Amino acid sequence: MKTKMAVFLLCGAALLTACAGAGGGKADSGVPEFVLTYAENQAEDYPTTQGAYKFAELVNQRTNGKIEIQVNAGGTLGDERSVIEQLQFGGVDFARVSLSPLAEFVPKLNVLQMPYLYTGPEHMWRVLEGKIGDDFMNSFGDSNLIPLSWYDAGARNFYNSVRPIETLEDIRGMNIRVQESELMVDTIKALGANPVPMAYGDVYSGLQTGKIDGAENNWPSYESTRHYEVAGYYTIDEHTRVPELQLVAQSTWDKLSPEYQNIIRECAQESAVYERKLWQEREKISEQKIREAGCVITELSAEEKARFQDAVSPMYELYCADYVDIIDQIVAAGK
């Protein structure tokens, strides 16, 4: 009887301890108060994924282990659109997503990814790190999403399995995969090609089977997904520079103390600096690998690029009629 009583008391004490930790009060030493999820659709070695791991590491260190963020790479928690929806109802705590699907939820973000908007990376970062970028960070309203920091994703270019794209006529009639983004669908149509919305993970087989002729993405994505194996024509036109954002769910944010919120913001900014450095390094490595693989690399001439720009110019009125002043400010920042 004494033995049974001792076991009962011991189990009861353990249960009380576990409940105290789960109740959001002070956790025991070494036991996290919060175990949170982070969704990332890229591979483990990708710069954005490495940025996510750095973010999780910094937060864990600065909170003395009280916040543990578990990074789920490779799209295991769903594609970007699905992840954004999960963030909105608290099914996922953190994520890194592209502005293309995110703009479907916060339309003003379309401004930042308009085709041929930036003269180069320096221009884009002047915009994002200045007052314009801050204004966009504060424009999420009742989306149930909290932006934390900008991540780099380079410039997107066209690639295909049919022929080099040297002129506007070359892309016409091609079936081009696009993200789930109305802006990208309309951009491809404006260029005379056929947009094919398709999940990121299906692009390789789509190119291989001929369901699509091409797609568009940056150097590291083209290389890491091995799309260059089935679509060997890569055209440098830099039609969009689509920055990306680290986000936290509003429901998760509201559970955190102001102290934890400040730490998370600081760590997100530090991880962004780290990610941008990794991106620049990876971009060079990917380009070299693709060139060595024998892919046909074409760079649009200035005259031909101007034709592409003219073709998509109606997009500005369609998507940015209410933001003409912001567009003017962005263009001015590049001069």
UniProtKB/TrEMBL annotation:
Pfam families in the record: DctP
CDD domains: PBP2_TRAP_SBP_like_3
Keywords: Receptor, Signal
GO biological process: transmembrane transport
Signal peptide: 1-20
Keyword Signal on entry: yes
InterPro entries hit by this protein: DctP_fam, TRAP_DctP, TRAP_DctP_sf
MF (Gene Ontology): carbohydrate binding
GO CC, any one term: outer membrane-bounded periplasmic space
Keyword match Isomerase: no
Protein name: TRAP transporter solute receptor, DctP family
Organism name: [Clostridium] asparagiforme DSM 15981
